[in-house]
Amino acid sequence: MYRSIFKPGLFDGQLVIVTGGGSGIGRCTAHELAALGATVALVGRNADKLASVQEEIAAAGGCAHTYACNIRDEAAVQALVAQLVAEHGAIAGLVNNAGGQFPSPLKDISQKGWEAVVQTNLTGGFLMARECLNQSMAASGGAIVNIVADMWGSMPNMGHSGAARAGMVSFTETAAFEWAQYGVRVNAVAPGYIASSGMDQYPPAMRDTIRAFPKTLPLQRFGTEAEVSAAIVFLLSPAAAFITGATMRVDGGRPNVRPGMPMPEPVRQQAYNGFHLAATPRVLGGGEA
Ligand code: ADE
Question: Where's the Ketoreductase domain (predicted)?
């Protein structure tokens, strides 16, 4: 069972949607929410990956259902949310986590590639949030958490993703203003360098760069999926009832580094990992992604 730091039963009887729930941070968050009593709707494109996470959650005593859906497809998102409301009633929470990109310098990104990344990381999240609002949350309230990225300052070789994620931060702020009247809170979580399956999507040429990431941030280690999930769960929970429009960075202080200012060697480090089913990425020495 997931070792959440939050109270057992915190989400009892609540339906929470997790997009991109088939792997990485989405899978971890789905496990934590299910361990806290939520019924989790796992949404993603790959039905097999969703089914295997559903089985893991069921084996741990939790409840999850799977919904294969392309979040870039407006009609498909409308139909998905209608189906969820018909099957489960009110939607209490949405974790807009599905995302994807490919590393490339800006000069080599085609219009098609740029638009694909913007559709997945910005438009898809907007569509999911809008439908949850219009079909359920405007009537019964709820909480939305948009997963963005550490794109503060720049996002070299990921310029399309950085632009889309920055757009998602602005969407979060406007939705927080417009939807507060319905009792809907909208926040974002911006993960930095997290030891997650997503790391293995980078080309082998970047292996040494990735392995050197911890030296570039004050906490001088990779974050865990559970450390991101904890921030998401907090923002979904009543403990965050007065927080809306915020973006919570979970990045070990990466944007707080000052160029030219030496970073002291850590004398102690303490990671939090409630999720012992997490796979170590191959690039960090794990056997599987
Ligand atoms: N995960 C990554 N891209 C996605 C998409 N377009 N739809 C659903 N899940 C996704």
Answer: 14-161
pLDDT at 96 > cutoff 80 = yes
Residue written as token pair 């794109």: 151
Ligand 1 pocket member 98 (CB < 6 A): yes
Residue 252's closest CA among 209, 206, 201, 190?
190
Q: Are the beta carbons of 17 and 90 closer than 8 angstroms?
A: no
Q: What is the pLDDT of residue 54?
A: 98
Write the DSSP string, 65-102.
EEEE--TT-HHHHHHHHHHHHHHH-S--EEEE------
Residue 25 and residue 126: Cα distance in Å, rounded? 19
Q: Are 201 and 24 in contact (CB under 8 A)?
A: no
Spatial separation of the C-alpha atoms in residues 56 and 38, rounded to whole Å: 15
Of 198, 248, 207, nearest in space to 228 by CA: 248
CATH code for the part of the protein at 15-250: 3.40.50.720
CA of 19 to the centre of ligand 1 (A): 8
Dist. CA 262–CA 260, nearest whole Å = 6
What ipTM was assigned to the predicted interfaces of this complex?
0.93
